[in-house]
Structures are given as C-alpha cells and as structure tokens.
Design goal:
alpha/beta, seven-stranded parallel β-sheet, 7 strands
Length: 254
C-alpha cells in the first residue's frame, strides 16, 4: 500500500485500455483516492462504468482545449478533496493532418492546437492546482522518444513532446522549494487509442520488442508500476527526470 492515505488526480482517461486508466487503477490498488478525469460527458459515461463498485474513485471532467475549465476543475477538486498529493497529466492531441505527410507543411493553427493541448496544458494545470498541492506532492506526465528523434508520422507531436519535457524541468525548478517533484514517463510505442493515431504502430511495437535488450513485451501495466514509484515516497529524491519504459530500446545504437 505505497500510496495509502494519498489523494490525487489522473487526467484524462479514455477507456479501459488507456495508460491513464492503468495508472489510476494501480494507484487505487496501492491505497490512493483517485479522481479520474474525462474530456466530456460522453466519455464520462464510459469512465463511470470502469469505477462502478470500486472504492476511492471520483469522477471529474476537463477539456484541455478550454482554458476556463482549468479553474473550474480546481474549484471542484478543492471542494471534494481540499488538498491533493499527486497529479498525472496524460494528455496529447494533434489534428490528423498534422500527423501525416511532411512536417514542413504543418499549418500554424494545427501547430498551435497541438502545442496548447499537449504541452502548455501541463503548465496551465499546475497554475490552477498549485494552491491545492501538499508539500512533497508528485506530478507526472507522459512523453515519447519522438521528442528527441525524428520519427515518420509523428511530426508535430514530436515537437510538442520536446516542449513538454522542457516544461517538466522548469516546473521542477519552480516547485522544488516545496518538495514537489515533477517527472515524466516515456513508454515505447503501446497499443492504445492514442497510440493508434500514429500510422504504422504495430510495426513500431514489433521493432522495439525485437531490438530491445529485454526480449519481452511491455505495455501499460509496466508504465503503471513505474508511475506508482514516482507517486510514492520512494521517489522523494527524483525530480525533473525522464524514465523510459521500453525494455531498454533507447540504449541500443543499431
């Protein structure tokens, strides 16, 4: 029960196969009270089915493209929990046209949409929720290797992930005097709804598993257990870091 007595948020959960749900489920099983977010009322219905009959789960909604919803979320969280011990930011979006073809042809409005939702939203979320964070709280976001390597069909999302990783470091600097840690998890390609937005996902997963030093599959469960470590007091000395969950693929040269 590494998270017993802790309260926090996992935003947003798409469905039972999402990494966000795996993290929320693992945190709850380790004793945490978890507020899980959905983008809208339609997705909220599916999320409510996931937590039906489970203790220590509470539903919230937030659309990360709507700036006013961040302050509304903060009000709701304050009313429900008072203070919280962790935030998991699991958000990424780019218009379809910006994820195919040549990156050089990216439209300004698509670039701004992707950057706003996928990177700036972490900063905005911390702005809204900072007064509610306990000392020694933990904040996690999710990134991908496309932040530092050019990958076909990842395009503008790679730029967003690079910005997100830099955001993590600057937030870690800002919040460190309160003992608040800010880190990011970087899974290899995983078969989720978000992952399937990248063309060639199946081939990417096979290539990573074939070349990684650990010759075995990995997935959202491995990401969730790494998240529990970062959310728990076991990681009190870790901030501003990227933890790769890809069976070691990122260390291989060729």
């Amino acid at each position: 029960m590494l998270l017993e007595g802790k309260k926090g948020l996992v935003l947003n959960v798409l469905n039972k196969n999402s990494i966000a749900w795996a993290i929320a489920d693992a945190a709850n099983l380790q004793g945490a009270t978890v507020g899980i977010g959905a983008q809208n009322e339609r997705l909220l219905e599916g999320m409510l089915k996931l937590i039906e009959g489970r203790e220590r789960f509470d539903p919230f909604t937030i659309d990360f493209s709507e700036q006013e919803q961040f302050d509304l979320l903060a009000q709701q969280v304050a009313e429900k929990y008072g203070k919280i011990d962790f935030i998991v930011h699991s958000v990424g979006f780019a218009p379809k046209d910006a994820m195919t073809g040549r990156f050089i042809e990216t439209k300004l409005e698509d670039f701004q949409t992707a950057m706003n939702i996928s990177a700036y939203s972490l900063c905005r979320l911390c702005q809204a929720l900072e007064p509610l964070l306990n000392e020694d709280a933990s904040i996690i976001t999710l990134t991908y290797l496309g932040s530092t390597r050019a990958l076909k069909n990842y395009n503008v999302m790679g730029i967003c992930k690079a910005a997100l990783e830099s955001t993590v470091r600057y937030l870690a600097l800002d919040l460190g005097d309160r003992g608040i840690r800010v880190n990011t998890l970087s899974p290899g390609p995983v078969n989720t709804v978000a992952g399937r937005g990248v063309s060639g996902l199946t081939e990417m997963i096979k290539m990573v598993q074939d070349r990684a030093p650990l010759k075995r599959p990995y997935g959202k469960e491995e990401v969730a257990t790494s998240a529990v470590y970062l959310l728990s007091d076991l990681s009190k000395g870790v901030t501003g870091q990227i933890i790769f969950i890809d069976c070691g693929y990122t260390i291989v040269g060729m």
